[in-house]
Design a protein that fits this description.
Elements: H1 2-22, E1 31-33, E2 50-56, E3 65-69, E4 75-83, H2 87-103, E5 108-110, E6 121-132, E7 137-148, E8 151-163, H3 169-193
Parallel strand pairs: 1-4, 2-5, 2-6
Antiparallel strand pairs: 3-4, 6-7, 7-8
Length: about 190
């Protein structure tokens, strides 16, 4: 009788553990993340139209898993910490939102835009690296070109290191969002000079 009772208790314990894992209550469930952007601006410069893109990113980070570095040569792809959507689409959306807020314009379109949209400036972006070590810092390396019509008026390289304020993946994503805000500010400051 005691053996049967012990067996029933063991079966209940296994069922409870399996149920909590399936419902997301276990410690190994997948968490999803999203980058944050600046709040929209209340003022609007109706004459300024910005085209953002094309945006190129390396295959290394164009995946659902959040990619971090263990050291300079070894990477980690977090199976249980992933982007909520397409990482590339989210990057271009956050950069567009940030530029909209920093330049006080709602006239922002992402590449490819409609034929009727004629941007005052186009920003072409090639992100070469966007990763870091948990608890340390995030590095964003990118080359970008500013176009006015078909004329290239500026070519720049950005290297942005942002300290991570904590050891979690949430802190890591916040640091990436902060790096994107700094990067878009460099772009918006350049546009303001022309």
């Amino acid at each position: 009788m005691i053996r049967i009772l012990s067996l029933l208790i063991l079966i209940q314990a296994i069922s409870a553990c399996a149920g909590s894992s399936l419902s997301g209550g276990g410690s190994d469930h997948t968490r999803f993340y999203s980058l944050s952007s600046l709040a929209p601006s209340t003022a609007s410069n109706k004459n300024l139209r910005i085209g953002v893109g094309p945006l190129e990113i390396p295959r290394l980070i164009n995946r659902p898993q959040i990619v971090t570095r263990k050291n300079e040569t070894e990477i980690i792809m977090a199976e249980f910490h992933q982007w909520g959507g397409s990482h590339r689409e989210e990057l271009i959306q956050v950069l567009s939102d940030n530029l909209s807020a920093q330049l006080n314009t709602e006239n922002i379109e992402q590449y490819p835009w409609k034929f009727a949209f004629k941007p005052s400036y186009q920003v072409r972006i090639n992100i070469e690296r966007f990763d870091g070590e948990l608890g340390k810092s995030v590095t964003l390396k990118a080359r970008w070109r500013l176009m006015k019509g078909k004329q290239e008026i500026l070519v720049k390289r950005a290297v942005i290191n942002t300290r991570i304020q904590g050891n979690s993946y949430n802190d890591y994503v916040k640091a990436q969002s902060s790096a994107l805000k700094t990067f878009s500010k460099q772009i918006s400051d350049a546009i303001k000079r022309f």
